[in-house]
Design goal:
14 helices; 3-stranded antiparallel beta sheet; alpha/beta
């Protein structure tokens, strides 16, 4: 083979391999850049939720009437769990409360017709350590709008790895990770045994006490100010705030490390800013059951469905009667007294 034929052969092989990678990445679509769905891409791993969901909204604007923001806990509030509202879930892992504002602005840029915004809030994220650093979605917004962004990812070997993982998971229909998605944006978590859950919960409690609770927690002084900024943005859309329910075992740790007063301050500030808040974070029949969580901190999707029903349907929802209280200026003191009474039973 002469040099010319050799060069042509090498180039042809390279072109075929390149086209094969691009075609496979397009077919599997692990970064959610395209809208096609099939039986072999119906289980999706988490590559980078911020990037995946930010790109998805840009390239496939949603017509949902409800936007949901929150942390990894709120990813398990599945869109499929709502019956009256069409929800786009823009919750992402390790959310800083200072990201809500730019995420809300970005989402409304892509879909200005949202009628309401559901905002999941986590108590431990109200600490100075967790909230002091400015964070925003703007870096991801710039990234997904870069020239040839989607084309470059079609040729990426990292994306090829994600695509291969998705193919394997979809072929077996197994949920083998803490969080996987389907093509409709519903998140799932692997099922653990009760023994595994107890072990993971104990480890999570230790981490919270060493990292987030006790002396490590100082209430962020600008929390109310920043939440007011979120509240005032796009005033035409109703804002519905809800607290994410941690397990009673983890709530005991909060109380045991002396943070009940800070918890009360947090709830009072949320009510003062928003007028009301759906509170799910206190001991009740759902949070008392440790198997409703896979680590005492993240609840399973069926608990997310209970949250959905309560927020949609209020007192008429078919959920445990003691799960979820709409706390307002009129009933907050009675609600906090009830929580203090439950906390006193821990001693």
């Amino acid at each position: 083979m002469n040099d010319k034929k050799f060069s042509i052969t090498v180039m042809a092989i390279f072109a075929v391999l390149t086209l094969t990678v691009a075609a496979f990445n397009f077919w599997m679509d692990p970064l959610w850049h395209y809208s096609h769905a099939h039986g072999l891409n119906d289980v999706q791993i988490v590559a980078d939720e911020r990037e995946q969901k930010t790109a998805q909204q840009l390239y496939h604007p949603t017509h949902a009437d409800t936007l949901l923001l929150g942390s990894s806990r709120s990813t398990y509030v599945q869109p499929a769990g709502f019956t009256e509202w069409d929800v786009y879930n823009y919750a992402v892992a390790n959310l800083s409360m200072r990201e809500y504002y730019t995420m809300l602005l970005y989402a409304f840029d892509q879909n200005p017709d949202y009628e309401r915004v559901l905002i999941g809030v986590d108590f431990f994220k109200s600490s100075e350590e967790q909230a002091k650093n400015a964070r925003a979605i703007t870096g991801y917004e710039t990234k997904v709008q870069a020239p040839f962004y989607r084309a470059k990812n079609l040729l990426s070997f990292d994306v090829l790895g994600y695509a291969a993982d998705n193919l394997e998971l979809s072929a077996t229909d197994k949920v083998t990770a803490d969080r996987l998605y389907n093509r409709n944006g519903d998140a799932f978590a692997k099922r653990l045994s009760e023994e595994e859950i107890k072990e993971d919960t104990a480890a999570k409690i230790t981490r919270f006490e060493e990292t987030f609770y006790g002396d490590n927690y100082v209430y962020y002084p600008k929390y109310k100010e920043i939440m007011q900024k979120v509240r005032d943005s796009h005033p035409e859309a109703e804002k519905i705030i809800y607290t994410t329910p941690i397990s009673t075992e983890l709530f005991k740790s909060l109380v045991g490390t002396g943070l009940l007063d800070e918890y009360e301050t947090w709830l009072r500030d949320l009510v003062e800013v928003n007028g009301s808040v759906w509170n799910f974070m206190y001991p009740n029949s759902v949070t008392n059951e440790i198997t409703n969580y896979y680590d005492g901190h993240h609840f399973y999707p069926e608990i997310g469905a209970l949250i959905s029903k309560r927020m949609e349907q209020g007192a008429d929802a078919d959920v445990p009667e003691d799960f979820g209280v709409l706390v307002t200026e009129e009933n907050i003191e009675a609600h906090l007294e009830m929580v203090r009474g439950l906390a006193a039973e821990f001693e």
